[in-house]
Design a protein that fits this description.
two-stranded antiparallel sheet; globular
Length: 201
Amino acid sequence: MSKVFTGLAVSVDGFISGKPLEGAEEFGSGLGDAPTLFDWYFDGDTPSEVFDGFKLSEPSARFFDTIASRIGAIVVGRTTYEHSGRFGGGSPHPTAPMVLVTHCPVPESGGGQTVITTGVEDAIATAREIAGTKDVGLMGGGLVTSALAAGLVDEVILHQVPILLGKGRRFFNELPEHVELRLLQAIPAPGVTHLHYGVGR
């Protein structure tokens, strides 16, 4: 069976974005005052073979492309979807279709987007059907927390950037119980450390 995993850039103190910029709208503010979380996507000299325009360090490119090429479908939470401009009607991944999990219907969605309003379990099941033999990626802190609580996540990947933001949106929300992780890989690279964990059952 395909695996379900999440991977996202995160500060050492656990934030996936900084505080909103002054005057910014509620949605669409992106990383707020913390664009440095994504600097490692563009600060290298090795082009990604999966994402056009990404130029990473050699160790980051090797790890990132290996992970990105596994994805056959990606599930996105509503908050991430709105903050990302609804991905322009497409997907955050260049080849993998997107499944949006939301409690409320979406006024407009693109042709490459499937909208699920019946919960994270159904969204992941739908993504698995779309992905076939490939894996399912998860994107969004609330979504990941719900999937972890439901026992649906196999791996957690943190692209940890060496900064303490002190404020912003946290990756993980409160969980009902402990989740044991086992370290599979720790790859230091310029501006980021890639931490790859398996989730205990």
